[in-house]
Amino acid sequence: MTRRPLSILIATLLAGVLVLAGACSSDDDSGSDSDPSTTTVADSDAGDSVSDPDSGSSSALPPVIVDTADDVTLTVGEFIDVVTLEADRATSSDPSVLEATDAYSDGSAEFNAGAEAKAPGAAILSVYDGDSLLYEVNVTVTE
Question: N or C: which end of the chain has fewer CB within 10 A?
Fold first, then answer.
């Protein structure tokens, strides 16, 4: 073999490697060095979804965790998850604003007491262990 065909062969192989490397790279053409696990709130009428900028998919917002009597502000469609271990029941002073749910089991999983923000307004979420009031949470719901 002469030098010229050898250098053409090497250049062709190198070009092929570069093409393959480009085909196997990420399809993220944003040019951003941001953390791929970062989520941003998507535009939505209910304000109840987040969008993963890398996949473009949406999912429900995580619930607001409650384990004390601290005041809480929610937007319509958001949920409260009462994580106090002994809490088995929750009630709302205004179910049209805040709909409460008791703790329950569906046979395959255990679910905490909680509530869903239904409409703008204010309500008090009362958290119980049986008949004993554990604490009350002032909840404000906004659009």
Answer: N
Contact 17, 24 (CB under 8 A): no
Q: How many residues are listed for the chain in this entry?
A: 143
- Domains by residue range for the chain, with CATH: 62-142 (2.60.40.1380)
Which residues lie closer than 8 Å to 71 by C-beta, 6 or more apart? 137, 138, 139, 140
Question: Residue 113: exposed, middle, or buried by beta-carbon count in 10 A (0-12, 13-18, 19+)?
Answer: buried
- pTM for the predicted model, two decimal places: 0.60
